[in-house]
Amino acid sequence: MTNLSDIKIAIVDDEPSIVTMLQMVLRREGFHRLYAASTCAEALDVATRIAPDIVLLDIMLPDGSGLELCSKLREYGNPHILFLTAKASDLDVLRGFAMGGDDYITKPFNPLEVVARIQARIRRLEPDASPANPVKRPDPGVYRFGHFTVNEAEGELIVDGQPVPCPAQEFQLLLHFCKHPGIVFSKTQLYEKVWGINGLGDDSTVMVHIRRIRERIEIDPGNPKMLVTVRGLGYKLVKESQER
Question: What's the CA gap between 61 and 28, in Å, rounded?
Answer without folding.
Answer: 27
